[in-house]
Design brief:
Layout (H helix, E strand, L loop, with lengths): L1 H18 L5 H52 L3 E5 L12 E6 L14 E6 L6 E6 L6 E3 L10 E6 L7 E5 L5 E3 L20
Antiparallel strand pairs: 1-2, 1-5, 2-3, 4-6, 6-7, 7-8
Length: about 200
């Protein structure tokens, strides 16, 4: 009698555990497939958001650097240059960052005993390139002792993967900066000539 009860309990335990099984292999494969499809759908939107975010935040990074360089000419009573490069030297690669330094001989290089680095602004651009297009074809931006740019009015042009991500930071002959506008609100930004930015 006791044996019958014990065998019935054992059978009921087996039935209980069999009904509590986890995912089958087929269910697991279907779940993983659905997740992969969702990621593939969301990834391009996420990438586009990152590209737009990088282009939009560029002015907020560049404008304070230009203002700092301009005010530093009055603080240190010497010319100040900005070049594209890394934290210790000018490389011409604006996409890496902006190096601000005193520039006694106005040549855009840290080569005089009194030249010293004032600030480094890392940009680390991932989705576009940054180009300086200035008057006088100098590869650097130079502020004179008076705080005015010496033939350095021009634009820092951000070239994204497509025209909708192109942006420009425009510097006037007086050293004032402004972002490029989207005059007709079509998502394509225009240069100082009113035409779409071209890289």
């Amino acid at each position: 009698m006791n044996q019958q009860k014990n065998s019935q309990k054992t059978k009921s335990h087996r039935i209980f555990f069999n009904t509590q099984s986890g995912f089958t292999l087929v269910e697991l494969i279907i779940t993983i497939g659905i997740l992969i499809i969702l990621v593939l759908i969301a990834f391009p939107s996420f990438q586009n958001w990152r590209k737009e975010s990088e282009a939009r935040q560029l002015f907020r990074k560049i404008a304070p650097t230009l203002s700092f360089a301009r005010s530093s000419t009055l603080t240190y009573r010497t010319a100040v240059s900005i070049c594209g490069g890394v934290s210790s030297e000018c490389t011409g690669q604006w996409r890496d960052g902006m190096l601000t330094f005193t520039d006694l001989n106005h040549n855009g290089r840290i080569d005089h005993p009194s030249d010293h680095i004032l600030q480094y602004t890392p940009l680390e651009l991932h989705y576009g390139n940054l180009i300086w297009r200035g008057a006088g074809s100098r590869p650097y931006i130079l502020f004179q002792e008076s705080g005015l740019p010496l033939g350095s009015n021009g634009s820092l042009l951000y070239c994204g993967e497509t025209s909708q991500y192109h942006r420009s930071v425009v510097m006037s002959m007086m050293g004032h900066v402004r972002p490029s506008p989207d005059l007709n609100q079509d998502g394509i930004y225009e240069g100082t000539d009113g035409r779409p930015l071209i890289c």
